[in-house]
Each structure stands twice: as structure tokens, then as C-alpha cells.
Amino acid sequence: MSVEFQFDFPRTLAAVTYIASKDIPDLTMYKILKILFLADKCHLVKYGRTLTGDRYSALPDGPVPSRVYDFFSKQVLKKPFSVEGRKIVANLAFDRKLKYPVFRATVPHDADELSKSDISALDYAINEFWNLDYNQLKAITHKYPAYKKAWEARPKGRDSVLMNVEDLFEGDPAALAGAKEAMLENDHIAKLFAKRRAV
Fold first, then answer.
1. Could you count the other beta carbons within 10 Å of the beta carbon of residue 199?
2. Contact 108, 21 (CB under 8 A)
3. Whether the predicted model's global pTM rises above the 0.90 cut
């Protein structure tokens, strides 16, 4: 079974708000999702955990954080119906009438939710990729072995499949020794405790 993290909505909201506060041109939903993915991947290969705890899906346009993608596509861009959806909308300004709305933050991010390493990973992703357009971001994220492995192995006719977190380490020169092992050990311990609580 693949490693699973606990989705952390408050930290994710802080990360999205942080990204949207950086005056990034053409900050569409797509660009937010890609920057979040790249920040999550950066943090994972160094520290053995992602910022968001979200699960990543391989879609035709590349990898996306599943929960955040659902919040944006089903609520933020339409009508928020959950507490989380309303919190995202409250932190962002955008024109819902546009086909591809551009986002900016209306409030500062919650600094208590993001660690120094979280900020460092977000800054890396923003500084490296802020000026890339849709096609460039799509091309970059399509090259990652984790995406290719999941996409090529998807069941016939499916246009979405979950990616394995372990595969995000593959071929990444920035991966620190021991980060993957620490992640696997923490996941094993968490699953053992979950089984004991269920008994």
C-alpha cells in the first residue's frame, strides 16, 4: 500500500494564500496547483513529508493535489458549499466570470501554519516556476517519473489515477539521504497505531 499523509487543510490554506500573495502574473487555478505540487515534492524529498498531506492524481494535464483540485474546480470556481471552500474564497480575490480567473490574496497567510521548511519549499517553487506558462508547466511536470509511471499504468479509459508518493523520490537529485526511509518508517508506525485503535 502506498504511503498516505494526513491532509492538513489549515496548512494548505496558508500555502495557497502565501502563493497568491506573491504577485505572480497569470496566477490561475492551474498555476496554483502546479506550484503547490512542486513545493510539496521539494519538501517531501528533503524532509519526508509534504506540506499539504494531499494525495496526488495523474491527470492529462499533469499531477494535481486531489483535494485542492476538488476545492477549486467544484467550489471556488462555482459556489462554495463547505467550510473549507468558503475559507479559500474568503482569502482570495478573483473574477468568477472569466474562463481562467487570476487569483490574488486578500489577507496575509496564517504564519503559524507554515514552518520554515514549508516556506523554503514554497519559495523554491515560486522562484523557479512563477514565470512559466501553462504549456511549460505541463511539459515539466509530465517528465517526472512518478507521473509517467502512474499515467502509463492507469486502467484503460481512465483519465485520472492516484500517484504513489514513494515514486516522487525517483530521479530527483535534490532528494536527501534518509528522507524516503524516514517517510516509510513513519507511515508504517502510523498504520500500526491505526490498526491497534481499530481493534
1. 4
2. yes
3. yes
